[in-house]
Predict the structure.
Amino acid sequence: MGVYQQRSKIGYTRETWSAEGDGLRFSEESLLRLTISETSQTVRTRMHGHLNADWSLRDVDFELSSGVGHLQASARVTGSEIRLTLRTGADTTEQSLPITEPVYMPARLRASLAGGHLHSGETLQAMIFDPVTLKNDRIRITVDGSEPVPDLAPARGWRVHEEYRGTKTQAWIDEKGETLREEGPMGLVLVRQTAQQALNEGWSPGAALDVVASTAVPVARLIENARQRMALRVRLSGIDLEAVPNDDEQRRDDAVLKIQRADIASLPSYALPCADRDRASDLMPTVFLQSDHPRIQARAHEIVGGERDAVRAARLLNDWVYRHLRKVPTVSIPNALQVLEMGAGDCNEHAVLLAALSRAVGLPARVIAGAVYLDGAFFYHAWCELWLGRWVSADPTFNQLPADATHIKFVVGGPEEHVAMLGIIGRLGIDVLDDR
C-alpha cells in the first residue's frame, strides 16, 4: 500500500502471508518519511511472526529504526500470558502481560470479516496486540456498507470503522477482507497498490509528514511569559472531555480547565525511599522504564548522592536529565536504558529517563503526555509527574519543577499509553480564557 498525506506520497507498507504448519506465517515492513523541527527522518519498521489456525497470535518480532532511535522487541504467547522481550544493545528487558482470551494482530482481523460476515451493521470486538507499544487492548470494528472506494473507482468495497484506544480509523475492504484503502489519524491515507507502484512510483520529491505541524493547535490569544505561568484557564473542545484528567494539577469544570501549579516550598517533603503503599505501582520497573537495571540504579544514586529529601532529590534528577541529554528530534518508542546510552532525544526521551531515574531512588514517578504552549500554538509534549506529597509536574526538557501552567495533561502512563494521543490530535480545540 502507498502512504499519502494531502495526496503526497510519503511512504509504503508491504505485508506477506503464507500457510505454515497448522497456522500462518506473516511479515510486514513499512517506510515513512517524517520531518520533526526541520529535521528529516526516515522511519522503517519490520516485523515477522506466526499465527494459529484461528488467526490468533503465536509470536511476533518487531523492529523500528529512524537513524536516531532504534527499538527491537518480541512477544511470545504462552498459555495465559504474553512474554515480552525488549532489546537495548546487549541488554534485554523482560515482562509478562496476562491474557484471558486470544489476541490478534490488527491486519488479520479485517480479513476475518470475510466469509458471510460482510453486511451492514456487523460488529466485531477482539483483543489485539500492538507490537509498537508492547500492549494489548480491545478493538471494535463495525461494517457500514458496500460503496465505491474513494479514488479507486470503479472498485467497490465494504466500508468499516475501527475504534482502538480513542483512535478512529476508516477502511474499505474487499470480499476477501483485504484492505483497499485506509484513512487514519494525522491525515494519513493508505491505498492498495501493486508492489511496483508502492515501492517505486509516485513519490513526491521532498514530501514528508511534518509531525510538529500536524499536532499544532493554534490559539487566538497569545500567552505572555509562558514559561513563567503558574496558573491558566482554557476551554477545550472537539474531544471527549470526560477522558481529560481532573486532579490536583488541573481542575475541569465542564469544558473549562484550570491549571494551577503547586508552590513546592509549601509542600511537606519526606525522606526517600517513599514508603506510601498507594504509590507502590509508581515505583515499579516496566519494560520501558527499567528502574531496576544496574546502570539506571548506579546513575540515579550517583546523581542524588546522599540526598534523601524528596524535593531536593527531584530537583537534582530533573536538572541532570536537562543538562546531560542533547536536544535531538527523535522518532522512536523510547526506553530509559537506551536513552541513557544515547545521551540524546526529544521530550519523550527526557520524560522516560527522568521517570526511571526517579523510581530507582524510591521517588514515585509517572510519564505524562499532553500539549504545551509555544509561539502561538499548543503542540504535543511529554513530561513527568513526581510524588512530593502530591503529584507535581516536572519537565526535564525545559528544566522546570514544577512545569509551567501551559502544560495540559491528557494521558497518564508510559510510552505504551501515548498512542491514545492519536485520538486527540487533529480534533482538539483550545481557547485561552485569560492571560493574567
Notes: The longest strand covers residues 23-36.
